[in-house]
Amino acid sequence: MEADILFFERQYFRQKALWLILAGVNLYVIYITFQQVFQGINVNEDSMSNSNLLISNVILLVVTLLFAIMHLDTIIKEDGICIRFFPFQLSLKKYPFSTIRSLVVTSYDPITEFGGWGYRFTFSGKKAINISGNQGIRIEFKNGKNLLIGTNQPQAVIATLQKTDQPWYL
């Protein structure tokens, strides 16, 4: 039910470096394809076949479109936190407050702690779902598992969680 939503955030991959790399790679592959397919010029002696070059273009386009539509939804309701990492999760995953031992909004280092952004797992059992930035909702569940949900609105998350009157949240 929409009425019990206290907080909603949608994050997209909007890092300039990511988009510059994707644009550069796409333009380079398009240039190579144009040279080989339409002008008959092989860039080097190990050039791919024309069909493989066209397949490479399609794959790069799909990856670029995937990054364009990929987003993380975070919803805080009266009874829990819901997330969706679209397009990998089509429905919301709910984490009821009753399953949470502790929760804190904190800074973290996505590179050293989780190896980057996205849907991340570590060998130590930690899990992160993040898109950008270095702020997150760090959750420890009663079953001992951990989850970090990235947020670009830490102050709004704190204000919302304070309204829930959960005993584990300061």
From TrEMBL:
Name by which UniProt lists this protein: PH (Pleckstrin Homology) domain-containing protein
Species name: Pedobacter cryoconitis
The organism's place on the tree of life at top rank: Bacteria
Transmembrane segments: 17-34, 54-76
UniProtKB keywords: Membrane, Transmembrane, Transmembrane helix
